[in-house]
Amino acid sequence: KMQNETLLSVENLSVSFDGFKAVDNLSFQLAKGEIRVIIGPNGAGKTTVLDLICGRTKATSGSIQFEGRELTRLKEYDIVRAGVGRKFQTPSVYEDLTVFENLEISYPSGRSVFEALFFKIDKKIINRIKEISEMIFLYNHLDRKAADLSHGQKQWLEIGMLLIQDPALLMLDEPVAGMTVNERVRTAELLQRIIQSRSVLVIEHDMGFVEKIAHRVTVLHQGRIISDGSMEHVKNDPKVVEVYLGH
Ligand code: ADP
Question: Taking every annotated instance into account, which residue ranges of this chain make up the domain ABC transporter (predicted)?
Answer without folding.
Answer: 8-247
